[in-house]
Amino acid sequence: MKWITRERPKIDRLACPWLIKRFIDPEAEIIYVPFDDVLKMASSLKAIPFDIPGVEFTHYGSNCTFDYFIKKYKIKDPALQTIALIVRGADTDRHDMAVQASGLWAISAGLAFNYSNDQELLEKALPVYDALYSWATHLQKEKHTQQPFEHLLVNVFNSYLKSTPGKRKKIPDWAQELKEIIQDHIDTSLSLKEISKDLEISPSYLSREFSKYFEDLSFGDYIRKRRIEKAIQLMESSAYSLTEIAYLTGFSDQSHFTRIFKKNTGQNPSEYRKNIRKSKSRTKE
Question: In whole angstroms, what separates CA 32 from the centre of its chain?
Answer without folding.
Answer: 33
